[in-house]
Amino acid sequence: MVRALLVPVAEFDQTKFRNVVEVLKRVKDVRALDLVHSPGKFNPQAYPQGHVYYNFITRDDDADSLFLHDFEPFRKTAVVIGLLGWSKEVTEEIIRLKKNQLQRKYPAPIANIIMIFGCPIAFESKISDVFCVDENLSNIETRICDATSRFLCKFSVYASAYEHTTLRSPGNLTGVVLKQRKRLSSSFEMNPERSKQMVTRGRRLKLNANFYLMAGNLKASLNDFSEAIFNLKAANDYLWLASALDGLAVCIFLLSSLGVPYRLPQFLNSLINSGKNVKSMLRSPSTTPRPSFQLSDISTSFSSFNESDGELNVMPFDVVEETIINCGHLSSYYYEYAKTEQTENVPAIVSSESLIRYALLMVLVDLNGKYDMSLVNEIVQGKSLHEGRYISENFNMEFFNFICFHVLNTDFEKLPVNSQLRIYQTLAFLFSKAKMKMKKALMQQLFSSISGYERLDLMLRDFCETYDIFIDRPEDIIRPNYIQKDLLLHILKLCERVGYRGGYVIYGLFILTNFKQILGSSQQVEIYDKIKRFSSFVKVGARCWNDDFLVGIDFEAVSGKLVEGEESTVKIHIRNPYAFELDIKELSLSTKDNFSFKLLSPDKKSINDFKDSYKIVLKPYSEILVSLSIIPENNGTFAVDGIIASIGICDKRKYSVRVEDMSAFPPKLKKSVHCCETETKFREWRIQVVHKQPLLKIVEVKLRDKWLMLLDGERKQFSVILKNTTTSDINHLVSIHINAELNNKALRPNEIYEIEYQIYKKKPFKILNKNDLVKIKGNQTFKLDLEIVGKLDVKEANLVLEYSYQKNTIAEYLRSLSIPVSLTVYPSVELAGCDIIPLTSNTSIGDMESKTCWQFLKEVSEEHHNLADFCLIALDFVNMWSEEMEIVIQYRMDGSSGAKEPRMFITSEQLQTRKNVRMFVPIKRMDLDEQLLEQKIPSLRNKQFVVDKKTPLAEQHFIKHSFWYKEEILKHLSAIWKVSSSVSSSMYLGRSGEINMRGFRFSSRMIENIRVEKVKLKLKLLNDQDIVQDLNNVYLNQFYTVRIEITNRNKYPIFGMLRHIPVCKDPPYTYEKKVLINGVLQFSIGKPLDSNETMIFELGIVFIEKGDYEWGALFDEMPDWKDGNLTIKKQHLQREQLKFKVQ
């Protein structure tokens, strides 16, 4: 069609203008047979069967389609017809003036024509391109033919200008031409130069074909379209090829309307027939079109495909219909392929209107029942003959819906308003004929919502509620599903196409918030990018996200409490559940009861000073910890129920954490959205804020060079000056010591005790002026007198002071201060080893009277003490220092019940550097209660030990016994070292310290040597006169008696078997033939032996052979003898056996 713009050039009332427009539309079809000869390219006599069809319009929208005029010239306004009403005042000068004004106002059209209506029959204008119409409109058809002839003359000149013009593809609506992407070569492609030539020729032929179609020369148009399609197809110019196929379909339709015979080239018939197989014409192709779409020999000239294969015939209407529909399939396919390849920018209006044409044809054919001449005339004349009729049941509704939906599935929102309205109006008509009332109403609403979207939003909300989607009540969505998601995605596309930016923001945020689990990452990013772009046009508001961002809140506080007026850190755990990046601004805490606090920025400034500039970036699918500094401004319970922030494009609002229902069974589905409502619970974070607390600061540590040099065990006193820097008093001040080794679970209880002992009993620090530190006032400076003890491997000692101001309880709040002291500790004297040596009643001490320990034993012996009740502790010391040392050992021995003071044993030795010495300390054997020995090893921290199931029971008994014997010894034993006074020139003279005796280690033999046996077996050898026999004078053939005294030192009675154990030391070693025994060697004691009771048993013997003999005894304790169970529990051996030589 030829677009002709009708404009009044003088005063023309609206009714008269409308009547004139209707008159012209009745004569819009102009036969070429009625036109005069034209010498130009578009001579109507060249194809007298042709028609020129006008499309009279009253609005100039050339600017909207300017970039398409070289691509599809029928979109250009070709003619401007100025309408003028005749009056007596209309003169030639006025007509010439109006024409000049018309040309200046509309310089772009091909022809500018003036038509004067209501002229007398005798009136004629001599000015070119001015045509007069009689009052009775009798010559209207003649004047239209004259104007058309004039237009064709100018059209020939216009078209000739394109013969040597390089045609380029259209850009987008802004006129920007898309830069073509380099295509990958294939086996079907020709060389670039040849391809370029075919593109140039194909585009020129396609443009000429459009020109011929406008001028009514259908034969020339069909030939040029055919050859253009051949060249464009061979060169893979898909955009121009698709447009050429659209033009060919129009040309074939007009040929069928005239009943003119025609014939398509063979290759074109094959190509069009292949359109039947393009099932996914509206889906983006993923690969190059199939070889069946390619030309087998692209070097062959077009003429070889255009050879006559018979006479021309009028095509049946069913063949015409099929040809047109297949052309539509192919054009849509190539439009989509051009989009996918990004080789061309496919204008949205072109592809959309192409689909609309074919959808409209499908509906009209179904309404008419078939494709025939009546339908063709209806379409050509623009008349509707099917009012009240609707599509049949056999109509392909699925494909029709797909086409209609795809019409809007482009950059629809970028189309001009008129184009959008025209498409909405056409779709409304199609949906009406398809009995799709809701879609028809939607299109009508969109048609009327260009200036306002209130009614459209109500319609969309009602539509959503049909699918249980409640925009204002998202909590009523029980389980989001894919059907709901797809519906919302369609609504977003609709809002985007119609320019409803506010709707896109509302529904976009809704689907992101409630359907993110089933949205793909690319979908999320695309939706949010568009929301950000549209949010500048509408107000988003605060209620756009749900509470998925906040994970948790953690307070970094000493003792789990905050202090009034002091800065504390809050860590906020935030996550981004989306696939796009988000910004967090104006972050703060939401508190209950409006608890007053001050929020600081990372640079310790008030939050109000930086809330506009401070921004946190959340990466996609990430979690971060944000640290904020707060200062509570009063005490009490600080309850936080969420955060306040502006996230992304949304305004500032509160975000909380929902408390999940952890019930074993999920609740039943709601029968309606308004029933079974439950209260939503949110998590709270509570922390106590205590009243203002003091703060200590170290003013001075009074040490020379801030450093100490000590020997192991040495003590040193010094002072530390401290200051309370706040106005709060200190009424609680203690020192604590921490050792990480106590957390080692692999240590045994006795090893843990040793560590605890060094920490709690041998503290490295000691406060000497505790009584002066009961209360420390605010802003007071005070002195702390300390004593430090040197310990090996300690390079820095820390005294930790815990202090606070307590109103109620000591556990209310504690603050600590660490006082570090740098020191170097050198080894002094170390305990290298130890042993316990038993003594017997026969031990001789006459030769060792010079030794202190032997002198002590001699004194004890003279006091009628049995030496067998004593033993010696052998201590091995090593001097690790560089000078001679004096070692002093002191042992306090408990005296008898009548003694006023305990007996003290003191001994000393001089020890040269790097030498060792063994020193002996006499101690009395210990009789510890069995219950004490079986007690658990205590903990100085009151720690509850776990029952040890891995260590054997016997080993556990040994560990307990050795611990308690060691503790008993260390109660009485101490040792110190001194720098020897013999080295008078030493700079270390006068230094002294303690020797660590905790390194004392027991073996089972040592325990047997030191303990007093619970069942005492004492053996005596008596002669025939019951006098104790001298063991050095035992003779043959004399009667002797072996007397055994058994004493029970337990607190319970015992029973068992007593055994004599004679041993002969000379070979043969058997005693049976050397000793006559009057009795049995093994027998029961007869009755239970009570506690502290003694029994005597005698056995007569006679030696009949000389030699060395030993006589011992063994008692087998049987605790279950009352039950008849003679199982042996313990065996008790005598401490001293009889040793004698028989002469």
UniProtKB/TrEMBL annotation:
Record has Amino-acid biosynthesis as a keyword: no
Record's keyword terms, sorted: Golgi apparatus
Trs120/TRAPPC9 fourth Ig-like domain boundaries: 1021-1137
Protein name: Trafficking protein particle complex II-specific subunit 120
Pfam families tied to this protein: Ig_TRAPPC9-Trs120_1st, Ig_TRAPPC9-Trs120_2nd, Ig_TRAPPC9-Trs120_3rd, Ig_TRAPPC9-Trs120_4th, TPR_TRAPPC9-Trs120, TRAPPC9-Trs120
Limits of the Trs120/TRAPPC9 TPR region domain: 333-536
Stretches assigned to coiled coil: none
Residue intervals of the Trs120/TRAPPC9 N-terminal domain: 2-181, 189-267
PANTHER family the record matches: TRAFFICKING PROTEIN PARTICLE COMPLEX SUBUNIT 9
GO cellular component: trans-Golgi network
Entry-linked InterPro entries: Ig_TRAPPC9_Trs120_1st, Ig_TRAPPC9_Trs120_3rd, Ig_TRAPPC9_Trs120_4th, TPR_TRAPPC9_Trs120, Trs120_TRAPPC9, Trs120_TRAPPC9_N
Top-level division of the source organism's lineage: Eukaryota
Domain Trs120/TRAPPC9 first Ig-like: 561-670
Main location: Golgi
Subcellular location: Golgi apparatus
Domain Trs120/TRAPPC9 third Ig-like: 829-1010
